Amino acid sequence: MVPEAPSRPQDGGRRRHGDHEVLAAIVFVATSGCTWQQLRAASFGPSGATAHRRFTEWSKARVWAKLHRLILDELGSRGELDWSRCAIDSVNTRALKRGT
C-alpha cells in the first residue's frame, strides 16, 4: 500500500527511515495530540518534519483509505464487524447554506 521510495540518482544523503518507524511516529502524533515539531526523533527515529513529509506523501497516495478498507475487509472476513451499527439510509441530504 505504501508507495515506493523515490530513487536517489547518486545514492547520497542520509538513510531513509523505514516505513514502520515513520508509521509509529505518525500514529503517536495522531493519538497523543502532540505536534509534529514536538515529536522527538530519539523516541521514534524520524524527526517530526520527516514524519510529516511522509504523512503528506502517503495521504496523496491514499494510503490511509486503502489501509482502512483493508482493516474493514479483514474484520469482515473474520465476522468481527457488526454492520447493523453502521447502517446508513439511502437518503441524500444537502447541507443548508447559511447567510451572513
UniProtKB/TrEMBL annotation:
Tree of life domain: Bacteria
Coiled coil, from the record = none
* Segments forming domain Insertion element IS402-like: 2-68
A Pfam family found in this protein is DUF4096
Q: Which PANTHER family match?
A: BLL5188 PROTEIN, TIS1421-TRANSPOSASE PROTEIN A
Q: What is the protein's given name?
A: Transposase
Q: Which species is this record about?
A: Streptomyces sanglieri
